Amino acid sequence: MRSVVRRFYGYLKKDSMLLYKRKKYLAVFILLPLVIAALFLFALNPSGYNISVGVCDFDNTEVSRGAFSDLNGFDPVPLACENCIKNLINEIKAGRLDLGIEIEKGFADNIENLKQSKLNVYYDNTDIAFTNLIAWKVDQSLNPFKRQILDSLNSEVGSGVSSARGGIDLVFDFVDLPSEVGDRVSDVDSDLKKVEELDTEFLVNPIWTDKRPIYEAGLKKDAGIVYIFPILAIFIILMLASTSIIYDKNTNFLTRVKASASPVSYLLAKTLFFTLLVLIQFFVILLLFMAFGGRYAMPVGSLIHLILFVGIINALIGFVIGLIANNEGIAVLFSLMISFPLMMMSGIFFPTQALPGIVRWVSGVLPLSYQISASKAVLLFGQGFSNAWIWFAVVLFGIVWWLVRRG
Amino acid sequence: MKFLKRWFGKRKPLTTAEVGFSYSNHEVLRDVSLSLRGGEMVAIIGKSGSGKSTFLKLVAGIISTKYTGKIKIFGRSKLLGKSKMGFVPQELSFIPDLSIKDNIKISGLNSGISEEVAMKRAVSLMKMLRLDEDIEKKPSELSGGQKVRLNIILSFLHDPKILILDEPFVGLDFLNRRLLWHFLESMRKKGKSIILTSHLLSETQEHVSRLIILKDGQVFFSGNLERLKTKLKMNYIYETRFTYLSRENLTKIRKHCAYKDFKILDSYERYLMFGLNNLREKNSLVKLFERLKLKFQEVGFREPNLDEVFLKA
Question: Which residue in A61, A119, B125, B306 could disulfide with B201, CB within 3.0 to 4.6 Å?
Answer without folding.
Answer: B306
